[in-house]
Design a protein that fits this description.
Layout (H helix, E strand, L loop, with lengths): L7 E8 L5 E4 L5 E2 L10 H17 L3 E12 L2 E4 L2 H8 L9 H4 L1
Antiparallel strand pairs: 1-2, 1-4, 2-3, 4-5
Length: about 100
């Protein structure tokens, strides 16, 4: 459910073992696909982010844990800013590489 202003949030990090971009899914699991990421209201994102940071730190799992804005367009969720779109899909100069190549 979106926030009153319609904004959703997702949480991302880089997996410490290999640097792969991961997203927080429902239930607290980390997944590689943005499509599987939990979409949270701002009120839900703040405590989830704090818990995700603590978990990633304690487990030495991930670094650079942060929340970012997501919007719904044409029935699908997508990151609002280009930085997160690239992190979710892969390189923007070669569509045959990265996660978008598998789609």
């Amino acid at each position: 459910m979106p926030s009153p202003d319609g904004t959703l949030h997702a949480i991302t990090a880089n997996r410490l073992r290999d640097g792969v971009v991961v997203f927080l899914a429902a239930g607290g699991a980390w997944v590689e696909s943005f499509a599987d990421a939990a979409l949270l209201t701002k009120a839900e994102a703040e405590p989830a982010l704090a818990a995700a940071k603590a978990q990633a730190d304690g487990d030495q799992f991930g670094v650079d844990v942060y929340a970012f804005e997501v919007e719904r367009a044409d029935g699908t969720a997508q990151p609002v800013k280009m930085r997160e779109r690239i992190r979710a899909l892969g390189p923007s100069v070669r569509l045959d590489l990265g996660k978008q190549a598998a789609a």
